[in-house]
Amino acid sequence: MLNWYVYGEHAPFYYGKAKGIYATEGIDLEIQEGRGSAATTQAVAAKTADFGYVDVPTMMRAAVKGAPVIATGVLLQTSPMSAMSLADKNIRKPEDIKGKTVAITPADSMTQIWPLFLKKTGLKESDFQTVAGDGQTKLNAVINGQADLLLGYVMDQSMKIKDATGKDVYPIKFADYGINMVSSGIVANADYVKANADLVRRFMSATTKAVEAAEKEPKAAAQSILDANPKGGKIDTLTQGFELTIPLYRTPETKARRPFQVTDQNMTESVNLMVEYGGLDAKAKANPKAFYTNDYLPKGDS
Predict the structure, then answer these.
(1) 22, 118, 133, 138: which could join 27 in a potential S-S bond, CB 3.0 to 4.6 Å?
(2) What is the pTM of this model?
(3) Is the four-CA dihedral 277, 279, 282, 283 of positive or negative sign?
């Protein structure tokens, strides 16, 4: 089960299925769209989905409250969070946000980390206006000119705005201002992992190979989304969205590694940030390793 309705980031799963990579590992993969990382995490905890592709910090919040879930691979090791605007507005750096209107969705992952971005960049809440609404309202505010920027993921909301307006979008990326936090990964029920170790290894092997194959053929990978789901978007923005995702797979520390092999330091920093800014219970800092494992990943460098 994916984190959301299909968009470019999801291309490797569809490409891996289309290319027979999962079948080679003995896996008959069914891909379901999701309705948010929290809902997908609940489905995995309840064993109604075998694996989920979710925002790992969202999974941590469920796990620390007792949900039996663990990340078996962290794919996005650099945060996709950004403040984005139509490129023709010429908002290129944090200073340019002053006097502007920012659209947010209350309580989502980006809005929780936004105060840290303000702190890192010397901005104050009084420097700009905010308008709040759900995900679609936030998009509409920028598309219709009621807001100058929105908080969004570089490969997701930016492509939706481009689909609607035909215009390019410019993101001010949180990661460029020292906010080092993981994002999407594969999660599974911890009991399911223990009981099905061989299957989990095969699934992570297939998914690693699917990501590596998709990286080499971004347009073909994006096309596999449309082949499976003809209403899944437009080929140009699906391709561009996926191409914007690829740089998020690795940090300077993991650039020689195969996908999903997150470092302990990256996870520890992510837990610490989530405790300070993201509403994660402070007890999570006692054992960051409780939230993830690299034990089921294929060995070797890329």
Answers:
(1) 22
(2) 0.91
(3) negative
For residues 218-239, give the mean pLDDT.
97
Torsion of CA 105, 110, 116, 122, to 10 degrees: -70
Q: Across the strands, what pairs with 151?
A: 83
pLDDT at 302: 58
What residues form DSSP beta bridges with 301?
A: 257
pLDDT value of residue 108? 81
The values of phi and psi at residue 54, to 5°, are -140, 170
Q: Strands, E, within the chain: which ranges?
A: 51-55, 69-74, 81-86, 101-104, 129-132, 149-153, 169-173, 184-189
Please give the pLDDT value at position 77.
98
Residue type, 189: N
Per-residue pLDDT tens over the stretch 83-127: 999 999 999 999 999 999 999 998 788 898 999 999 999 999 999
* Cβ burial 87-97 (10 Å sphere, 16+ → b, else e): eebebeebebb
Task: Please name the helix (run of DSSP H) or strand (run of DSSP E) that holds residue 45, with its range, or none.
Answer: helix 37-45
Question: What pLDDT score was predicted for residue 278?
Answer: 85
Please name the residues in contact with 185: beta carbons below 8 A apart, sequence gap of 6 or more. Answer: 53, 54, 56, 59, 71, 72, 73, 74, 75, 76, 260, 262, 292
153 DSSP β-pair partners: 81
* Cβ-contact 172, 259 below 8 angstroms: no
User: Are 165 and 187 within 8 A, CB to CB?
Assistant: no
